[in-house]
Fold this protein.
Amino acid sequence: MKTNLSHATLIAVPVLLFITLNVWQVAAQQGLSSGLPAPTATFRARRDRVMQAAPDALVLVRSRSSIMSENEDGFRQDATFYYLTGLENAVQAVLVMDSRRHESWLFVPAPGQLRGLLHVPYGYVEPGKAAAERLGLDHLVIWDEFEPFVDRRLAEDPSLVIRGQFLTARTTATASVLTLQSERRLWDNVLKARWPQSQFGPMPDPIALRAIKDADEVAALRRVALSSSAALRAGLAALRPGRRQRDAEVDVLAACVRGGAEGISFWPWLMTGINSDLAVAFQSLADNGFLDRTMRAGELARVDVGCAKDHYEGDVGRTAPVSGHFDQGQREAWDLFVYAYRVAMNAIKPGKTSQDVLAAWQLVFQQQRSQLRTPFGKRTAEVVLSKEGRMFWQMHGVGLDSAEGLIDTFATGQVLAFEPILTVDGVGLYLEDMILVTPGGAEVLTKGLPYTSFEIEATMRRGTALKKVGVENSRRKRPTVGHAIPAGQKLTPPIGVEVIKVGGLIRACLPGKQTVRNYKVEALTILDAARDEPVATLREMWRTGPTQTWVASKHDHQFKLSSLS
């Protein structure tokens, strides 16, 4: 979370300044034709887009102004500054895009001006012509030249507008006002006090600039989604009665790193019981203990996690039972929640809007409402169809930040988080995936994750088993558990079923059961034993008849069930 001036303040202006400091494709081609390396050309093309969108301006974008604090997991650059420069480690730098002259200037600290023992390329950016050419900049100079440069340009062209990520209108800067300002607002006020006769305005919306991802960004977000999916499975497996939330959160951090990420997108939310209500969970952001509590049997948990890699951040989550088993009401409500989610996802197509998705989601509840049997299921439908059901429901962008603003109209190349959120009598229900908008619709990037109540229970069961006996032992022993299901065998709820890939065939097992009788299930999860993660789900098997080939919905593969006993 981020945050007017007396004579004494004006004296301190230089110090404060120092401290607080498919158009795109055409621009990219222009950059590539200049002979610049591809990544450099990409950043230059992005700056060109800004200058084209604000032709009357000096556009100012600041880097992060301080090194990381000791309780952070790593240095995180300002997302917009990185998007426009590619400089991941710069501290107290300011990018100025002079639109009238179509030039990019970077002002950086001189050697020795930063705290500690930092040296290039950590914190500092080496000034000079050679470095500027390497980075695709027109000028790269020390910070002391910033004020003279702005003075000179405003004298030459008084109509120039100073634009940036400004948060405030011009106000009187009293001591009490300054005390309540964030660093970002303080930066606004300092600039306006230093150049009081100048015009100020907002820069082109950074979120809109970053909304459509290029091929490299999509590739980076696929890697982020892979590690974030592993972290979610770890978060589900970490739930159990009697355990502290804080203890479980550590498992998510470890899974991110082991999954190839550099860290977490945000501190994981494993919010159980009353904390699963978003309105309550949000209070954790101002609580020293992050609303830590001991989990209890019968509660539901909001497992909301994300990993960070290559500067991009993930965001994915599920609702899960602390005990590993949904009760009857929770199961009915959750499985309808999931069904509506899948139906609504079909509305995510270029040109459609988030309201189209919401309408499709609500329509499922409207159609299924009369068939609900449990009080909690009925109450969930009631909330969905009320104004309360829209309160936290959202679709937001995902990229250099795990949440990049709300999305209204879908366009090819967006990466978003589809995130329906409900609170039903103090109990939170929540589901979230990372989704790429393609010309044909939605592509889920967070693949291989459980959805239905049975799938979530099976994932939690497997995760617990792996912790007890170790990954390798678990993989060797699992195929011998239970009995193979002969071709055409049907199973019925509420029996949970694991399906394990063995030598190109599929072995379906009932954990803890010694026999398989006439049961039928709505879903079988196919587990890739080599990676210990689901690769598909059989959802239509009871409709295909007693054949040996059952089609996995939402996948282009076919799997044969054979008797392996």
